[in-house]
DNA sequence: TCTGAAATTATACACTTGATTAATTAGCGT
DNA sequence: ACGCTAATTAATCAAGTGTATAATTTCAGA
């Protein structure tokens, strides 16, 4: 007849835990499985508590999407290092096609969220921001790398290269993360670096060394 | 007090209508909005009837996914025409980055389904089949096109090119279909053809003519 | 040590969902 | 024209959903 024991937690911690539990639920059970009760259970908390930290379930999911995307881009960007622009670009590519960015769990969460973008304005806005941020990152690296090589590109060409490279990286990321195939046997990093170099008109052998 | 009038329909028609209604629901309301009642309403039918043609809602959704993917690949393949292998490859690319393949509605449905693949074995199997079919199509076209040009590729190289081209097309398809940006101003077909040509080591100007 | 405010739980509600079943209707074969 | 089978509707159910609120517990500050 006694209530379960509990501890007070700072707001930031509880919000973080709830978001983490939401992402876990989505990864394992899909978006439909991320019910208020399931999330609360995984966070070691009672369903009602969620409402103290998030107005809606909708708000909770949106917040989870925001942190997920922001973390994802941060992980990719972290692979850049701090060398030349060309080596930073190579680093971004490496990070994009290897764990933890390219990963089944990550893809599952991304896919679940993407499925909501079209019919949910709140999710659409969050998506747009993340997409923009990633393509800006790519475009900047391309511009700096080409300038560094003494082959500066026009704004239009920079935009075109941004579109193509973004598509190429996204596609490879999905393909590898999905990974029904035995990508383990294949050197995905080399494939990614070589194809990007080819698109940029850089000698693949040279780019590989970066 | 009279019941609503109705008409008997052959099994194939009803199944088709129900699947179409399911896809419409998903496109407009997302997967969560594709309830039994919503689908029935759009099909001009009563909820209970669905169970006569599909064991589960799960089976209905899986069937919708199967026809969706199969139609999508058929639409892309229809762009190939029946000329040389190189021109068929160019046709596939054109079709992949223009409507009705590259299209907001199509992407929305695809995204909704993709979000379920990881947590639903039935959907996973359907996905695998469609993915396999599309990459086989690309690999075959690449092999034939390169052989036709007197530059036959090894199996390993063919596989590598298949991976890269598939990624590139998928990525472009998503980017264009999402279309938050003003892709209307940009010649996406030219971008797609040029980048594929570059990856294949073919002169873009030549490929563009195909 | 005690008290009050904040955090957390417990309980309940209204609603939607997918599923089930019996009653009714349509339309083909005879 | 008519009956019979299959198709369709109507009505209902149990389970699960997000949400609301009151009762309880924790814990910092006096």
TrEMBL record, chains A, B:
Residues 12-72 form the HTH tetR-type domain. The keyword Repressor applies. It comes from the Bacteria. GO terms for molecular function: DNA-binding transcription factor activity; transcription cis-regulatory region binding. SUPFAM superfamilies: Homeodomain-like, Tetracyclin repressor-like, C-terminal domain. PROSITE patterns: HTH_TETR_1, HTH_TETR_2. Residues 35-54 bind DNA. The keyword Transcription regulation applies. PANTHER family: HTH-TYPE TRANSCRIPTIONAL REGULATOR BETI (PTHR30055:SF234), HTH-TYPE TRANSCRIPTIONAL REGULATOR RUTR (PTHR30055). This is TetR family transcriptional regulator.
